[in-house]
Write a structure and sequence with these properties.
196 residues; alpha+beta; Aminopeptidase; 2 domains; two-stranded parallel ribbon; 36% helix; 29% strand; disordered C terminus
């Protein structure tokens, strides 16, 4: 357990640098307000990938990272958060966006048939072209194929582009909460959220 934490600290330092770690500490020490979105899922066949959005594997992601000088932090989430399932969007020979899904959200505790979309990211030069919506659609298709019935997403209140992307993708707001500082304890969805 202790060795795993040391390895995580090393990984974060090597990927973000000392300045990045200081910024992360500052970010985590301030209160954050989140809106919780929810959508029911139906099992259906996987459709084509809009905007090149498709599920990826950790092996593909690791191989791609080895070809780059630097990558945006969401492309490093498997190292820092322990997540393993994601979809990414490609333009030509490079990824322009990524979205991670998990059953172990840092903010919500879910039931066995529920999942959470986390860390939705589109590269700055590719924003405004529907890539976030395509990533959300690909993630929902993948989750429904894996027999999940409900998917949640937590979005910071002031992040209007992400909120619009989820709302366009048939998610509806079901709650709101504030996280203060480092003492983050995931909220149990069965206690305080209205069910879809």
């Amino acid at each position: 357990m202790f060795a795993a934490r040391i390895e995580r600290v090393r990984s974060v330092l090597s990927s973000h640098g000392a300045t990045g770690v200081i910024q992360m500490i500052r970010d985590r020490s301030r209160p954050r307000e989140y809106v919780v979105y929810c959508r029911g899922l139906e099992r259906k066949p996987l459709e084509g990938d809009a905007f090149g959005a498709r599920p990826g594997t950790l092996e593909e992601l690791a191989a791609w990272r080895r070809t780059c000088d630097s990558v945006a932090p969401p492309f490093l989430a498997d190292r820092t958060s322990g997540w393993s399932d994601f979809c990414w969007a490609w333009h030509g020979n490079r990824p322009v966006g990524i979205v991670w899904t998990t059953t172990h959200s840092p903010l919500l505790v879910t039931a066995p048939d529920e999942a959470v979309i986390v860390d939705l990211y589109t590269s700055p030069e590719s924003r405004g072209r529907g890539i976030a919506s395509a990533l959300i659609a690909a993630a929902c298709e993948q989750l429904s194929w894996r027999s999940f019935r409900t998917v949640y997403a937590t979005v910071e209140v002031h992040n209007m582009p992400s909120r619009r992307a989820f709302e366009r993708s048939s998610f509806r707001p079901v709650g709101q909460f504030t996280v203060r500082g480092w003492l983050r304890r995931p909220l149990r969805t069965t206690v305080w959220l209205r069910r879809p």
